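User: Round two. Same drill as before: sequence, then structure, for each protein.

Assistant: Same drill it is. First protein:
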Amino acid sequence: MPTTGVPFLTIGLLLLSNIFMTFAWYGHLKFKTEALYAVVLVSWGIAFFEYCFQVPANRIGYGYFNAAQLKTIQEVITLSVFVLFSVFYLGEPVHWKQIVGFAFIALGAFFIFTK
């Protein structure tokens, strides 16, 4: 694969991974009456698909990105997916303090990628 496609493939796979991860970790919050063992098993099954995208993303992206950059990309995607998930799936509003906190994380990401 030409290296020009590596960032797009890596980020795309990380995005898919984080969608599954978010549902595995937080999707059960809408099902408070379900038995804990049941939601753990369902979450574990969903997390399998997270790993099916996460591991190849890191394997493909490593070398083009260093490990700190891969982790930073993953965290920024995680927060982005989580905000959309919490608003549209859980119906929670976004508070200005969360936006400020995420902006500080984005500032940290900026420093990870600058030379």
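Second protein:
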Amino acid sequence: MSRFPGQSYPREQVTEATLAASELLEVLWGRGQETARSAQVSPSQLRALLVIEEYEGTNLRALADELGSRPPAVSRLCDRLEAMGLAERCPSATSRREVELRLSLRGRAFLEEYRAARTSEVAAIVARMDPAQVADLASGLAAFRRAASLHRTAQDSSPLAVRRSLGADSADSA
């Protein structure tokens, strides 16, 4: 990873570089959101849509846990997503007292459009890198993702965190 063979970056430099890259990605993601036709989606609504997509059929409490919010606030967030036609509440197959959250067709289309815009931005940047840098980046990002998954699972024992950890492990081994 270092420009000098046999030397590695101090962890503080890597942390700073990772934070700088994440800030740049936030700018790129913002462009993607503006490009998508439903630019009225707030960052919290987008995070909720992504969680609902990943854990199709999740309930309000699990969504609140995943978002680090309270159920009443998440319920209002879901009200807005439903009013926009991006998500749906459906009766739970296992409990009459719960509802399951699912993306609507419009919600799926929004996320596809959003991801296409993000992909275009990132692909243009990766195209400017030489093949060795791309390979290093891919390897480093895979390691970062594994470490982040382990870190989140250690901090959070919610059902979604456990499912995420199991899913990330199986996706990395595929």
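The longest helix spans residues 11-35.

User: Perfect.
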